[in-house]
Amino acid sequence: MTRKVADCRKWPSEVGCTLTIAGEEDEVVQAATQHAVAVHGETDTPEFREQLRSVLEDEKVPAAH
Fold first, then answer.
1. What is the Cα–Cα distance from 47 to 12, expressed in whole angstroms?
2. 27: how many CB neighbours lie within 10 A of its CB?
3. DSSP the chain
4. CA angle at residue 28 from 39 to 25, to 5 degrees?
5. Is residue 1 within 8 Å of 53, Cβ to Cβ?
6. What's the CA gap between 30 and 62, in Å, rounded?
7. Which candidate, 19, 12, 5, places its Cα nearest to that of 55?
8. Sequence spans of domains, the chain
9. Cα separations (Å) of 6 from 1, 17, 25, 47, 65?
10. What is the distance between the alpha carbons of residues 2 and 54, in angstroms, rounded to a whole number?
11. From which domain of life does this come (predicted)?
12. Is-contact 52 29, C-beta < 8 A?
């Protein structure tokens, strides 16, 4: 299973957040939602969670040498 990533650096904010969250998709959506509510003042709604889910990226794993 491909891990997903939410990276705050991709969305400019007043706080200049640099947090990156990686894991299984549902874990990342849960953690990113909690973070967005606590730090960025977002509201936890089903629509917000779906918006977050839609912008998650696959984790890029470095190639083995």
1. 20
2. 13
3. ---EEEEGGGS--TT----EEEESHHHHHHHHHHHHHHHH-----HHHHHHHHHH-EE--PPPP-
4. 155
5. no
6. 26
7. 5
8. 4-58
9. 16, 12, 10, 17, 27
10. 15
11. Bacteria
12. yes
What tokens does 58 get? 């696959």
Residue type at position 51 = Q
pLDDT, tens digit, for every residue of 27-63? 999 999 999 999 999 999 999 999 999 999 999 877 7
Per-residue CA distances from 60 to 1, 2, 13, 32, 39 (Å): 13, 9, 24, 18, 26
Residue with tokens 């909690």: 34
